[in-house]
Amino acid sequence: MCKVPPARLPSVVLALVVLAGCATSGGVVTLADGRTGSFPILTRTLPTRPEMVEQPGTITGDLTLPAGRDRVPAVIVLHSCTGVTPNLTEWARELNRMGYAALVLDSFTGRGVKEICTGHASVNPGSRLADLFRAQELLATHPRVDPQRIGVLAFSHGGWVALWASQAWYQRRFMRGTLAAPVAFAAFYPVGCNVRLVDEADGSGGAVRIFHGTADDWTTIDHCREWVARRRATGKNVSIVEYEGARHGFDVPFYARPQRFPDVVNSSGCTITQQPDGTFVDDTGKPFSGASPCMTRGAWMGYDARAHRQSVSDLQAFFKEALARR
Description:
alpha/beta
């Protein structure tokens, strides 16, 4: 049964109740009962090929809370192209130690996808933007979450989603007008810095910090430096924190011995440009795809204990400022 009487639900939640029923019909519609742990979230799956159509979807969120009873800020955690991995569980614990609720989203399992690093399967950023904003709506109903202080922590492909989520155009496209946008976006070694949007000055005002290693050959840092510079020139609150010599995945202890993955798709040699109609072209002016000539394969991942420790401290400082009570 639904825990909250329909008459007391906001209109957006009522619409979900009508369409999807209670949690047993595919996803929870409120967290007003104060639950933690894993639960399904109703979302959308956008087409990744022209012959496909948009479909409803269900993903999973896993919520943990810091000790106490007071309302706290919350952080939505977005995984990389490998899906939810053990280091994200540790990041959630770290966020709890900082005093924040942590909601780790699994955007792949519910869609029948294991990974998208090799290009054999795909979940596009649009689907993950829908996941992020539906999760935000749910978090805002939790009695221990301050809905005005919700941030995002994202990694690699999830970082791409975070960067786009900070743009007002994508907020208008994927949010439903029931909440203000997240106020802080932390992106670790994000994909997507090499994508130039039509109106990059159209930011939401939320603070953005990129955390990046200078030796990353999967999402090279030069693109993210340029991404930051273009937005800082328009007065946006964005910056990049650099870790000298650190590789992609510098926070993942599993890669204590650096490892090269020859089969992963690598777009770091591309400059991708959005067109006025919303489509994207590669360096040659042709539609961007996995077959674009700028695309290559192979990249290194490697843990860097020094960079990892420093990034925890740097992230805490960022969120302490960005998620402070106004």
